[in-house]
Fold this sequence. Notes:
Elements: E1 10-26, E2 29-45, E3 49-53, H1 60-67, E4 75-80, E5 83-84, H2 90-96, E6 100-103, H3 107-110, H4 117-127, H5 133-146, H6 163-175, E7 181-185, H7 193-209, E8 213-218, H8 221-227, E9 230-235, E10 238-244, H9 245-251, H10 255-262, E11 313-316, E12 319-321
Parallel strand pairs: 3-8, 3-9, 6-7, 7-8
Antiparallel strand pairs: 1-2, 1-4, 4-5, 9-10, 10-12, 11-12
Amino acid sequence: MSISSLELEPLVAIDRLTKRYPAAAAFGKPKAWVNAVNGVSFDIRSGETLGLVGESGCGKSTTGQLLARLLEPTSGSIRFRGRELTTLRGREIRELRKHVQLIFQDPYASLNPRHTIGPILEEPLRVHRIGSRAERRQQARDMLETVGLDRSYADRYPHELSGGQRQRIGIARALMLRPSFVVADEPVSALDVSVQSQILNLLKELQRRFALTTLFVSHDLNVVQYMSDRVAVMYLGTVVELAPAETLFRGAVHPYTRALLSAIPSVGTGERRERIVLRGEVPSPLHPPAGCPFHTRCPQAVAECASVPPDWKPVGPDHYARCLLI
Ligand code: SF4
């Protein structure tokens, strides 16, 4: 079942999106492949925040980078406002940047240390030949105020800013072209806990103000619950459960989602959950298990799980999961 087919007009719809990397080569030819993203399908509705959550290495950040067209997909479809993005090249991808932007986990790594903040914020406008020099300068300073910084920060260098201030700059730069869709990739995981809530509240306010649609990528369930309208849970390159945030945190059905939630006592209703300890490690994406990819760790696995890949099944209103027991 295609999840994207159930919605009439999603802003973003991905279908069987796959990204494989060559892992080892013999005689110049790959002899093994890593399936970082393996046939992922979902949609993102206009104006919503879709949380994408999972353990490190599950493919969530790769999925975000594919949607922003920072990575080339191996196969599958990404449609944005009905337009196929996987076939875009060169100049068309640059044009897409006006509509689709990415907020990075570590903005410092992407801020040119030799430039002050003003020119850094003006650069996207200059690249796209938007406005005069004076207008670009004005817009950069206006945007500083929008993200809660004084206009005088335009004359500072990135190394003069704190982590939270740098992330505000990262957000400001992503918004300079007034995109309609933003991929926020672990935007607070590098920040002190005391600063995280300020940045999350800023993101929420900006989402409302700029009518943003957001893919919010994070390993932190508390953060995802706070930010998301719906949540997709990834395991080993595939989405295993997708539901409205409230539904997922109150009534997850997939054994993997339930295990993740059981490790976070403060998530959900505040009721005590029985801790579900998963056995073993996440399998290598070089050699993903046959059948259900979770069967090597699943506490509820039955014999069939080792050979039959589960398909999407509707669980309730707007709620889907991929498990043979459903
Ligand atoms: Fe567990 Fe089997 Fe369901 Fe996979 S299909 S989640 S292994 S019960």
